[in-house]
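comment on this one:
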Amino acid sequence: MKTIVATTLTLIAAVLLISLQSSRGAQQQPPTRAAVSAREKEIRALEAAMMAAAAEKGADGYMSFYAEDAVELPDGAQMLLGKESIGKTMTFLDGKNNRLTRSPVHVDVSESGDLGYSFGNYEFRSIGKDGKPAVEHGKYATIWKKQKDGSWKVVLDMGNASPEPKDSGSR
């Protein structure tokens, strides 16, 4: 299991590095630090909006941030291809006592401005089968892609359960 997660993370990192490198070659002038910072803030704002939409509208709100051809790499399960398939597994967000919170540790956006990623920690609060409050902690990584209409959508997402973080790990 650890090998699958490690292999998947290595693959994602390789794809991001290749994408970021190829986008650098395509651009004459690198963006200013202010432009990069604005793009990173945009991704952070999208993360917050996605959590707010999940809290307000459940799975439908959460899934509104996903591209039609998105991929989900769930912990300990087969990969899910397409927004519709992923959405079927997110109905747990519809429970009134269920709340997902994601806290980005790091966000980066390619120089071309059309691909970004975030990773961080999540917390899922619910009521357990025993009727008592339950909390699950974990880590996530999300790749965002700018769509033709200028909006950002999740194209790849993954997460795995882990102990509660001792600190945010912020950079």
Observations:
- The chain has a mean pLDDT of 85.
- DSSP finds four helices and six strands in the chain.
- The longest strand covers residues 133-146.
